[in-house]
User: Fold this.
Amino acid sequence: MGQYADLLFFNRDFNCLVAVELKRGPFKTAYLGQLSGYLRVLDDYERREHESPSIGLVLCKDMNRAFVDYIIQDYNKPMGVATYKTSVDMSSELLDALPPIDGLKALLEGDGD
Assistant:
């Protein structure tokens, strides 16, 4: 199996694996098929007997909510689609609430306490 989800988490409250696909552009219907395939593999090969079925999320730059809601109803796996914002799209109020980039880099590199 040569394809992998972009991010994989475990949600303790839902007791399941969560696969996240990150997409730079607008939503495409093919993303749901790709994500559905990842969920099938996770449930067949990684999910443990006591865990709930895996959940999938597509994060894309833009989408038409009505179109996504219409298309996603034919999939039987628990999946969702959401959009994200980059710093260019954020209000100054939100940007001011974020920690400075140097602080984040230090945390990721293990230099922050």
The chain has a mean pLDDT of 91. The chain is about 35% helix and 20% strand. Residues 27 and 63 are 5 Å apart (CA to CA).
